[in-house]
Amino acid sequence: MKAIYTIALAISLLVVSCGKKETTNNNNKPTVAVKVSKVTANDTNPFITASGKVAATNSAELSTRMMGYVTNIHVKVGDKVNKGQLLISINNSDLQAKKAQVEANIIKAQAGFSSAEKDYNRFKNLFEQNSASQKEFDDITVHYNVAKANLEATKQLRNEINSQFAYTNIRAPFSGVVTNKFIDKGAMANPGMPLISVEGKGGFEVTALVPESEISQIKKILRLM
User: Fold this and answer.
1) Beta 59-62 vs 196-200: how paired, if at all?
2) Residue-by-residue DSSP string for 194-224
3) Largest Cα–Cα distance in the chain?
4) Is 18 exposed, middle or buried (0-12, 13-18, 19+ CB in 10 A)?
5) How far apart are CA 172 and CA 189, in angstroms?
6) Any idea what DSSP says for residue 84?
7) Quick one: pLDDT band at residue 30, thresholds 50, 70, 90?
8) Which residues, listed in sequence order, are joined to residue 61 by a DSSP beta bridge?
9) Which residues contact 175 (CB under 8 A, 6 or more apart)?
10) For residue 15, with 0-12 CB atoms within 10 Å meaning exposed, 13-18 middle and 19 or more buried, which class applies?
11) Beta strands of 9-148 (E only): which ranges?
12) What sequence ranges are listed for the domain Multidrug resistance protein MdtA-like barrel-sandwich hybrid (predicted)?
C-alpha cells in the first residue's frame, strides 16, 4: 500500500509540474504594441457629401402653343439632331383653313384699297383745281385710309397665322441628343405640354441640397468627385 501511495504522489507532482511549465511558456510570448489615437474633429476635410441632380447646362423640353393631334414623330430617344431639324409634326388643318380664309380676305381688301386709292388721287387733283369741295375730299380721304388700314390688318392676320405654323412643327433649338419623348403618334398635344426633350453639347450643372453650415465652404472652382 505504501508503494502505491508513492507512485500516485509522483504522478500528481508530474502533472502539476507540466501545468506550471505550460503556463510559463504562455507568459513568455512577446507583447504586441498597440497605438491608440484620440478621436478628434477633422476641420481640414476638403470634401462635402450632398445629394443632388446632375443636368446638362444646355437642355430644353419642347412644347407647342397649339392644340392638335401628333401626326408624326421623326426621331427616337438617343438620336443626334441638328439645330432646326424637324422633330414632331402636329396636325394643322385648322390653321390651313384659317389661312385660306385670310388669303381670300386679303384679295378682297386689296381690291377695295385699289379702288379707294384711285378715287383719292382723282379727288385730290380735283380739289387742287378747286373742282371738288373740302368735304368731298375729306370724305374720300377717310374712305382711302379705312381701306388702307383694312388691307394692313388682314396682312397682319396672315403673318400671325403663318407664325402659328411654327408651333405645329417642333424643331430642335440647338444641336444635341434627344433624351426623352413624352407623347406618341396620334395623341393629342395640348398647349404647354412637354413633347420631347433635347440636350446640347457642353458642360453639366449640379443642383444639390447643402446644409447652411457648409455653404461657406463651397467655392466656384470646387471640384466635384
Assistant:
1) antiparallel
2) --EEEEESS-EEEEE---GGGGGG--TTPPP
3) 175
4) exposed
5) 17
6) T
7) low
8) 197
9) 80, 81, 82, 83, 200, 201
10) exposed
11) 52-56, 59-62, 68-73, 80-81, 86-90
12) 59-192
Exposed e or buried b for every residue in 49-83, given b needs 16+ CB within 10 A?
eeeeeeebebbbebbbebebebeebebeeeeebee
DSSP conformation class of 181: E
Q: What is the pLDDT of residue 112?
A: 97
Q: Whole-angstrom Cα distance, residue 86 to residue 196?
A: 12
CA distance 181 to 77: 7
This prediction's pTM = 0.56
Q: Distance between terminal CA atoms of the chain?
A: 87
Q: Grid coordinates representing 185?
A: 403618334
Q: Map residue 57 onto helix, strand or coil.
A: coil
Domain 63-217 has CATH 3.30.2270.10: no
CA distance 56 to 143: 59
Contact 91, 185 (CB under 8 A): no
Separation CA 40–CA 36 (nearest Å): 13
